[in-house]
Amino acid sequence: MFLQFLVADNREEKKMGFIFLVVVLVLFQGFLISPISCLLNSDGLSLLALKASISTDPYHTLKSWLESDETPCKWYGITCNIQNRVTQVYLPNKGFNGYIPSELGALTSLQNLSLSTNNFTNIIPPRLFSATSLVSLDLSHNSFSGTINPNDIKNLTLLSHLDLSSNLLNGSLPNTLTLLPQISGTLNLSYNRFSGEVPPSYGEFPVTVSLDLRHNNLSGKIPQVGSLLNQGPTAFSGNPNLCGFPLSIQCPEAAGEDPRVPLSPDQNPNPNYSSTGSNISGKPRGISATVPIISAISVLLGVFSISVWLLRKKCVKVEGKMGKEKCDKEEEEEEDEEGQKGKFVVIDEGFSLELEDLLRASAYVVGKSRSGIVYKVVAGRFSGVTGVVVAVRRLSEGGGFWRFKEFISEVEMIGKIKHPNIVRLRAYYFASDEKLLVSDFISNGSLYSALHGGPSSSLPPLSWSARLKIIQGSARGLAYIHECSPRKYVHGNIKSSKILLDEDLHPYISGFGLTRLISSTNKTADLNAEKKNLAQKVVISGFGSKSLSSPTSVYLAPEAQVSSSKMSQKCDVYSFGVAVLETLTGRLPDVGPENDEKGLESFVRRAFQEERPLSEIIDPALIHEVYAKKQVLAAFHIALSCTELDPEIRPRMRSVSESLDRIGSPH
């Protein structure tokens, strides 16, 4: 029709033809463009459902979320993969009001969803758990209500981090969480309204899971099973009707029982066993992670500081010998009274945490031994301190009693030991019924776990260069302990679980000074009792009876196993030699079939005497490192010299360290 207008002779008709043509082209272009504007992919449409469900967006965070886009990959808070599928929705603390639509469950590639610190309400839609690629889910600090269906959440088989804290969720704790095979990080259900008992299946969580069930309405006895035994008291605090270890509230039927010692101390060398401990709110009869206790301790510290000042001022005015003696006696009694009430002392001037920070922090048990329980303490959001991790050891009483001044003297001695290969003591707390040591937390476990594996050890087999670095650094640390003072300090408990490793496999000697601190007035009796039990067989809880010598005894020098003997530096040399043999062979140092029913030292010595091939002695993981054969042999000879039966023949640690340093690093 418009062609007729174009060929028309009349100018008006031609003009009408052009107008008609323009109108047709515009309409045709509209048909072409409209479908394109609706090509936003399915993930984008799911996110638009979230935008529509948000009634308040005070910071206009979602203004870039436009339906005219082809993908949501350039939208604020959104991350996509190369296929333009959404892998992350990260929108914490945006002031949103609204609810979560079920359409988010259609994001099948979503790995990280964080909507924390907003004001989302209503239930968490069951369909959200259809997003089965989720690795991290953080919906904390909102107002979600309702229950969590165990059959829904078990679909998140890739989930490793779950934080639903600070909401209004109720009902029972979902018992299917232990069916999530990848759960290994944070599992935070605190500050909700969950009720009922703690499921015994929660003991099946890996020890690496940071479980937090604080401030709910949970009740009953905390199951004494599996990894629940490794949780600190802060994991369960704020549940008035919960009882049993690690809380200080005893269950009525368990009065008189002490569930705190499920294993004989050294029967289970924890891979993350951290030396000298730190803070902790888990004292049996007093300190807990609550504000009233913190306030009480703060007031007491202030009161006693003023009392000591007044006492000393009064003593200045007393003249004569009798007055001085009376003053000294009163001051000593006052110090003992102060110690009974509690005193927190920072040794390292660069240490920024205070007692309140430590008591409020999350705490997780990472090790148990004869010297006490070790906690990993994560302090944050207090006094401007964020994300500080320390180790806290609660010292066992050891059946004895320390006077305040004696304890301070010992701890101050430990605090003076500063070396790049020794775990550093940062602070301590003393009270008549609680003694805590605060030190650096060494994050990569121990040499024991690196060699023999463990529930939290993910290290590949150690190379020769790594092993040489570890034994060289450990030797330097131990030599420093021996040489730093005329008092000729002795560690007294050297073994592979006392050599901690950081992320770079840098070694740290841990546990120095603990032997004296836990012995107190019954030192000799405790030591003799331990020595009498060296040859006894132990029963490992949950695994039946095993014919093993005490893990500590296999490191002890022969002369140290004699009743009433005194530990010496040469005893440390012997123990270090056994740890080196353990590092070279990859074998456990105990008496058993692996070592021809002999100790590791005897096995290696006989193997060299019989001239067996080196491949039968060293760790199989080192066999391929042929270039290091001479260096490995040199290390063997040094270790064997350390483990000579006659202590007079053994070298001093300084000589051992120098000999190891001469081996040099392989190229």
Number of strands: 25
Q: How many domain regions?
A: 4
Strand content: 15-25%
Structural class estimated from helices and strands: alpha/beta
Counting DSSP H or I runs of 4 or more residues, the number of helices is 16
CATH-scheme architecture of the largest domain: Alpha-Beta Horseshoe
CATH topology of the largest domain, which one? Answer: Leucine-rich repeat, LRR (right-handed beta-alpha superhelix)
Shape: elongated
Which regions are unreliable across 5 or more consecutive residues at pLDDT < 50? 30-37, 254-322, 381-385, 520-551
Mean pLDDT: 76
Distance between the termini: 88 Å
Rg, rounded, reads 33 Å
Helix percentage range: 25-40%
Biggest β-sheet: count, sense, barrel? Answer: 7 strands, mixed
The CATH superfamily of the largest domain is Ribonuclease Inhibitor
What's the helix and strand layout?
Blueprint: H1 2-7, H2 11-37, H3 42-53, E1 54-56, E2 78-80, E3 86-90, E4 97-99, E5 112-114, E6 119-121, E7 136-138, E8 145-146, H4 150-153, E9 161-163, E10 168-172, E11 186-188, E12 193-196, E13 210-212, E14 217-221, E15 241-243, H5 291-316, H6 321-341, E16 343-346, H7 355-360, E17 362-369, E18 372-379, E19 388-395, H8 404-415, E20 425-431, E21 434-440, H9 447-452, H10 464-483, E22 499-501, E23 507-509, H11 514-519, H12 523-532, E24 538-540, E25 544-546, H13 569-585, H14 600-609, H15 629-642, H16 653-663
Parallel strand pairs: 3-5, 4-6, 5-7, 7-9, 8-10, 9-11, 10-12, 11-13, 12-14, 14-15
Antiparallel strand pairs: 1-4, 2-3, 16-20, 17-18, 18-19, 19-21, 20-21, 22-23, 24-25
Helix pairs in contact: 5-6, 10-13, 10-16, 13-15, 15-16
